[in-house]
Amino acid sequence: MKAAVIEAQGGVENIVYRDFPVPEVRPGDVLVNVKACGLNYFDVFVRRGMPGLPVKLPFISGGDVAGTVAGFGSEVKGFKIGDRVLLDPMTGEGMVGEQVQGGMAEFVRVQHQFVIPLDPRLSFEQAACIPANFGTAIRMLHTNGEIKAGDLVMILGASGGVGTAAVQLAKAHGAVVIACAGSDQKCQRLKELGADKVINYATTDFSREAWAISGKKGVDVCVNFTGGDTWVPSLKALKRYGKLLTCGATAGFDPKEDIRYIWQRELRIIGSNGYTKEDVTRGMIGVADGSLRLPEVKVLPMSRLGEAENMMEGRDFFGKIVLVPD
């Protein structure tokens, strides 16, 4: 099979589109013919190399996989060749594309318990936008964050995959949403996606603007999966008893801290990691029935994975990037 293979950790020049062995199917596995694979920031981390994230090379990233059943092991029931499916990347042996070989290839192997029948109303490209983004946002906002109708929710990095999903889910739950992005064009698209207020943090101090929008009371919830120099301003924007929700650190995991805001306002900092098969299924159904909308989807061939990751690192896109086999 052809695959976008990480030969060494570092720059995108280490991704080579080449022949790679088809995964061996064990008794409890399903082999999926990949039709589309969504790109996430963890793909960048896997390729770069990060402390605490060892990767056995050569490696194939990619967890948001939609495709058709190409084979299955002797213990697998309920599937037939050609079935359209979506994968829950958080499997019992590790995350697909992070701990086990992923879907930036023509075929991927996965334990059968983590294969979801794909809603017929969705294309493969649409489906590949769902698992990590909507699964992560559902767990962060609802399971862990317990947001309420009427909450004023500020979302940083709102123009990316998890961000646009969080905007959709918060609005669907009755929250008032402030979406933050790095350009006026992205802010306009976020308004079209349903955001009540938008802030261009490239030209405006988002913390001060959010404080003003809230009537100098502060926001109820801040979603911050960027970290870096946005961390302390996020604390400043929160009201007393406010919640800061985080599921990542795309701009840096070791930010400056100001503990005064945490104790004086009795803030709650809530981490969120991963999602469940039920979360992914819930997101799939919401997109299929129209209660949740996908943002703009940019589709590229897998041989251009390096180019796609450069776009992601440079934040030169809106919504979701999806790769398809050449």
Distance between the termini: 11 Å
Encode the helix/strand succession as letters.
EEEHEEEEEEHHEHEHEHEHEHEHEHE
Helix content: 25-40%
Average pLDDT score? 95
CATH architectural arrangement of the largest domain: Alpha-Beta Complex
Q: Give the amount of beta strand, in percent.
A: 25-35%
Compute the number of helices. Answer: 10
Structural class: alpha/beta
Uncertain residue segments = none
Inertia-based shape: globular
How many structural domains can be distinguished in the coordinates? 2
Q: CATH homologous superfamily of the largest domain?
A: Medium-chain alcohol dehydrogenases, catalytic domain
* CATH domain class name of the largest domain: Alpha Beta
**Strand segment tally:** 17
CATH level-3 fold name of the largest domain = Quinone Oxidoreductase, Chain A, domain 1
Radius of gyration, in angstroms, nearest whole number: 20 Å
Largest sheet: 7 strands, mixed
Structure report:
By secondary structure, the protein is α/β, with parallel strands linked by helices. The chain folds into 2 domains: 2-129 and 295-324, Alpha-Beta Complex (Quinone Oxidoreductase, Chain A, domain 1); 132-271, Rossmann fold. The chain contains 10 helices and 17 strands. The protein has helices spanning 41-48, 124-127, 131-144, 161-172, 184-192, 206-213, 231-237, 259-264, 277-289, 305-313, and strands at residues 2-6, 15-19, 29-38, 64-72, 84-87, 90-91, 94-95, 107-111, 115-117, 152-155, 176-181, 197-200, 219-223, 238-246, 268-271, 297-301, 320-324. Strands 3, 4, 5, 8, 9, 16 and 17 form a 7-stranded mixed beta sheet that branches. Strand 6 (90-91) and strand 7 (94-95) form a beta hairpin. Helix 3 (131-144) crosses helix 4. The chain is globular and about 60 Å long. The termini are close together. The model has no long low-confidence stretch (mean pLDDT 95).
